[in-house]
Amino acid sequence: MERRVSRVVKVGSVVMGGDHPVVVQTMTKTDTRDVASTVRQIQELELRGCELVRLAVKDIEAARALRTIKREVSIPLVADIHFDPRLALASIEAGVDKIRLNPSNIKDRAMVREVARTAKSASVPIRVGANLGSMDPELTRSERAHALAEEALGEARFLEEADFHDIVVSVKSSDVREMVEAVRIVAGCSDYPLHLGVTEAGPLRQSLVKSSAGIGSLLLEGIGDTIRYSISGDPGLEVDAAWTLLAGLDLRRHGAQIVSCPTCGRCEVPDILSLVAQLEERLGEIVKPVTVALMGCVVNGVGEGKAADVGIACGRDQGVLFVRGEPVRNIEPSAFIDTLIAEANKL
Prior knowledge:
The structure is a single chain. This protein is an alpha/beta fold. It is built from 11 helices and 15 strands. The chain has helices at residues 35-47, 60-72, 86-93, 109-122, 141-161, 176-189, 204-220, 235-248, 272-283, 298-307, 336-346, and strands spanning 9-11, 14-16, 23-27, 52-56, 77-81, 98-101, 126-131, 167-172, 195-196, 226-227, 256-260, 290-295, 310-314, 319-323, 326-331. The strands form 3 sheets. The protein has an 8-stranded parallel beta sheet. Helix 3 (86-93) links the parallel strand 5 and strand 6 (98-101). Helix 1 (35-47) packs across helix 2 (60-72). It is elongated, with a radius of gyration of 23 Å. The model has no long low-confidence stretch (mean pLDDT 93). Keywords: 4Fe-4S, Iron, Iron-sulfur, Isoprene biosynthesis, Metal-binding, Oxidoreductase.
């Protein structure tokens, strides 16, 4: 897979673009003015592997709260700005690491120039984030995709005319095909780092399917520098999903990955599904990359178990433990989970 070449943009301690790894980010679901709750959520997201976090800045109190939040967390903060560019200026003054502007709802060109000047002075990048919401719903999907791309590119060009060049671009839609088409347009005629996501993707199951289809297809084409799943719920699930996708595409790994069979009539362990659920829960505390396999029979089990860092291939009354491809010993079913957890922790 040949990766699209994009310019490099530094966001606090995180570097995106060029040949740097795809960055995992999410957005807090708290009221930014509630500093304690916001800090607690960001710290939890850090533990789950979040590398960049965006916060809603809807008034001056929220902008000022960023200063205190910034002191309590270690990952870079992105201020999400709509309608009022003065909030961007206040967020930069508070020490934020990046600004997100929506070109469809900030029309004061003189103020956008002032934001660009101030951001450049403070070495704060700007993400131009265009969304479906500003597009005419009467347009066809293809027409909306082109309009979405042009809106983002037009705003980026405006910033460059103001001598600002640390720009990241996103073009998002709740329509997967529309989002993919718009991103391809931007990718084909610019070198901006691209933030990928299907916006307003819905509850967990729906979002996992839509986001994985859209983001994954673009990443497989070598397009994309940072990603965010949009889930109506816990932002930690967004981080988990992003890392699972990156691992599934063999781009990056964080924490444990489980290889387990879907089960069928050949399964030799009657409660394999509950064992996999236990394994998933207990592996949640591991942050180093490790692949753990639990296979219900020997048809594919031996091969998959050997391919994982550690795995068990189940037979009728016992399983075979494999560590880095080598069979180690036979294991009784009652010891499957404890053995896998112990071996994973060793690795």
